[in-house]
Design brief:
The complex is a heterodimer of chains A (105) and B (385). Chain A has 105 residues and is mainly β. Chain A is built from no helices and 10 strands. A 4-stranded antiparallel sheet of chain A has the order 2-3-4-8, with no helix packed on it. Classes of the chains: A mainly beta (105), B alpha/beta (385).
């Protein structure tokens, strides 16, 4: 488990990049109040999805506008063709933790 | 429409072919490409690919297999004959087709008289990049002619590879036309940050050397020693093959905002298309990657009988010396520019371009998140004519 931050430190609509793991992950807090953790690097070209545009459960890559569904990791269309990995998120005592593993889930 | 031919197997051509299938076209779909290679992505050619960091630049995916494209690679289209609805190909074949997508792109401009001189390169195709890469060895003396985005990216990559780099620019400030002098100077400063010499305000007179380039002579008589030269002075649309076809040709193949040409069931997309832009209220030939990805959705719809204008604001990016530069919109002479976040000295900032009260452009340097937000404000065609 990776400890990310306190829920209070990640307001809805925001994302945080966690670079302590390789490859880095991004944790999103949607406007709807859900938390998602995914690979931070776009599968198309080197760009951080934590810098992307969050809308609903979708994040748009800041470089080339590929959209990924945070629930499944699937891209909605070109230029990205490969999914990003998703990771379970757990909140305990107000702290966001991600079940990070090398294996996709 | 039973048979559609896409002429040009690059991002714009492949994207139009995909869009035709996604929008329901189930006829025969032929893709003609003059290069022997399968479609590949061009932006990495001056960056990751040239640096040897990435060789995976192919654009085709496993999903494309199901789309049933009929590939004609290594084949050039010689002419278009609208009357009998056919294309003449360089392999001797005549291809009959009901619909045609013109996506033949643009080719790099050379300095006159330098084509074929050993050590002198342009950078447009995969083969160009492979040839150049073999010569960018540590200690090589590289002269880049042209401080535009391609020139700056090549200089940056060559520096990373350990070359000694000089950049020559005819204008007094690089990128001034696109970004204005103030921001052009900020971009130019990246060269100095990394020990690359930038010589401005002087044209190149000629390239000297017998069997191989020896130096670049400037109009003021200075001679800059060179083992390798890269010419980055823009591109010319590939439309000569369409002479006599009845298409209107200006700076490219003229189309309306929905990519339609003056001929029925002939559309043009990407670098070769001089399209009317609703956003800019002007005809505009965009050589940028995002345009080559977005225009095809419009072109395919037009070909299938449901034309709708393409509305996006122009957008391009460049990666130089580890700095990501992003620009959207269009700057004109007289627009003002204002840094609203960060600091140009830190090479991390967001600047907005304004025409009176109107936001007309956004420039970001290492500010992708802020840039994404501001770019959205440009997403509607709001410019006054």
């Amino acid at each position: 488990m990776i400890e990310v931050c306190r829920v209070a430190e990640l307001p809805p609509g925001e994302a945080v990049r966690v670079a302590t793991v390789d490859p880095p992950i991004a944790v999103f807090h949607t406007e709807g109040g859900e938390l998602y953790a995914v690979d931070d690097t776009c599968t198309h070209q080197d760009a951080s999805l934590a810098d992307g545009w969050l809308e609903g459960c979708t994040v748009e890559c800041p470089l080339h506008a590929s959209c990924f569904d945070l629930r499944t990791g699937q891209p909605s269309g070109p230029p990205a063709t490969k999914p990003i990995r998703t990771y379970p998120v757990i909140v305990e005592d107000g702290v966001i933790r991600v079940a990070y593993s090398e294996v996709a889930c | 429409m039973r048979t559609a031919a896409v002429v040009g197997a690059s991002l714009a051509g492949l994207s139009t072919a995909r869009a035709l299938r996604q929008q329901g076209f189930d006829g025969r779909l032929v893709i003609v490409g003059d290069e022997p290679h399968r479609p590949y992505d061009r932006p990495p050619l001056s960056k990751e690919f040239l640096a040897g960091k990435s060789s995976d630049i192919g654009l085709r995916t496993p999903d494309d297999e199901a789309l049933d494209f009929d590939w004609r690679l290594g084949t050039r289209a010689l002419s278009l004959h609208p009357r009998d609805r056919s294309l003449q190909l360089s392999n001797g074949q005549t291809l009959r087709c009901d619909g045609v997508v013109i996506a033949t792109g643009a080719r790099a401009r050379w300095l006159p008289g330098t084509e074929g001189v050993n050590g002198v390169h342009v950078l447009r195709t995969l083969d160009d990049a492979i040839r150049l890469r073999s010569e960018l060895v540590p200690g090589a003396q590289l002269v880049v002619v042209g401080a535009g985005f391609i020139g700056a990216e090549v200089a940056s990559t060559a520096r990373y590879l350990g070359a000694d780099v000089t950049v020559i620019e005819t204008e007094s400030v690089p990128l001034a036309r696109q970004l204005g002098s103030e921001m052009g100077l900020v971009c130019a400063g990246l060269h100095a940050d990394h020990g690359v010499r930038l010589i401005t305000d002087v044209p190149v007179k000629r390239i000297l050397g017998a069997s191989r380039v020896r130096c670049v002579e400037l109009a003021d008589g200075r001679q800059i020693p060179a083992d390798v030269v890269v010419v980055g002075i823009g591109a010319t649309p590939n439309f000569e093959w369409l002479a006599g076809s009845g298409l209107q040709l200006a700076d490219g193949v003229v189309t309306d905002a929905a990519c339609a040409t003056g001929l029925p069931e002939v559309v043009a997309v990407g670098d070769v298309a001089a399209s009317y832009s609703v956003y800019l209220h002007d005809r505009h030939r965009a050589e940028h990657w995002t345009n080559a990805l977005e225009q095809p959705l419009t072109a395919a719809a037009t070909l299938l009988g449901e034309p709708r204008p393409h509305l996006s604001a122009p957008y391009f990016w460049s990666d130089q010396y580890g700095v990501r530069i992003q620009f959207a919109g269009r700057r004109r002479e007289g627009d003002t520019v204002r840094v609203i976040e960060g600091n140009t000295d830190q090479r991390s900032f967001l600047a907005v371009y304004e025409r009176g009260d109107l936001l007309v452009g956004v420039l970001g340097m290492n500010q992708p998140k802020l840039f994404s937000r501001w770019r959205r404000q440009l997403a509607r065609p709001v410019l006054a004519p």
